[in-house]
Design goal:
mainly alpha; about 0% strand
């Protein structure tokens, strides 16, 4: 709270926009879109957010993007496509939710660039706090009223569910978001987006290590392309 009092109005409005876009608007489009499309499309289209970060940061922030980065981005998308289609054995059938997923990716990318433009002087922890507090406030009040959503809090008080949600919050909300905003603060946004494209690799590794899932050949080929 003391740090918030010292921020300029420009920085505060940047934080508000980051919170609105990434904690309220993007999730609404994302999860609504996922209900109306296939998991394959969801996995693939979500990767386009990192590409959009590169494009917007290049156009708006005038960040320099090299031919190598452009080539690398296309190779990464190729790897993600190979994994999503199970080695080109399944086709992509576009549904009504795909446009919503693309829009969600756009809002997510825009929130990253806005942070880079207006709020990099703010600590990542403060960004995570304001972003998620704004998301909690609006998603529990205005959003359900506007979209006629109904909240069911009964499962949350199950001990096992509460434990999982706690670990999820620490890893994904506190950990991953703090590291992401710190990365965007100290390196160009388009470079951070390129590195962020490697997330499917870690998903595969954790699935193997924690869930004892087998590694199909198409995962290995797609993973090699992404790492390349």
């Amino acid at each position: 709270l003391k740090k918030l009092k010292t921020l300029t109005y420009k920085v505060i409005w940047g934080l508000i926009m980051v919170g609105l876009l990434s904690a309220v608007i993007q999730p609404l489009f994302l999860f609504t879109g996922l209900l109306k499309t296939s998991a394959i499309n969801g996995a693939l289209i979500s990767r386009t957010q990192m590409v959009m970060v590169s494009i917007i940061s290049t156009l708006w922030l005038r960040e320099r993007i090299t031919p190598t980065q452009i080539l690398g981005t296309f190779i990464m998308l190729g790897g993600a496509y190979f994994i999503a289609t199970h080695g080109l054995t399944e086709s992509l059938a576009w549904g009504s939710g795909d446009l919503l997923l693309f829009t969600a990716a756009l809002f997510g990318a825009l929130s990253t660039v806005i942070f880079k433009r207006f709020s990099t002087e703010v600590s990542p922890q403060l960004v995570v706090l304001t972003r998620n507090m704004l998301g909690i406030l609006l998603n529990l009040t205005i959003v359900p009223f506007l979209f006629q959503f109904k909240h069911d809090f009964n499962p949350v008080f199950d001990v096992k569910v509460l434990a999982v949600l706690t670990v999820f919050s620490l890893l994904v909300i506190v950990g991953a978001q703090s590291l992401w905003y710190k990365a965007v603060e100290i390196i160009p946004a388009n470079r951070a987006s390129n590195i962020g494209m490697t997330s499917p690799i870690f998903g595969v590794l954790f699935a193997m290590g924690i869930l004892s899932e087998k590694l199909p050949s198409y995962h290995m080929i797609g993973g090699v392309l992404i790492l390349l």
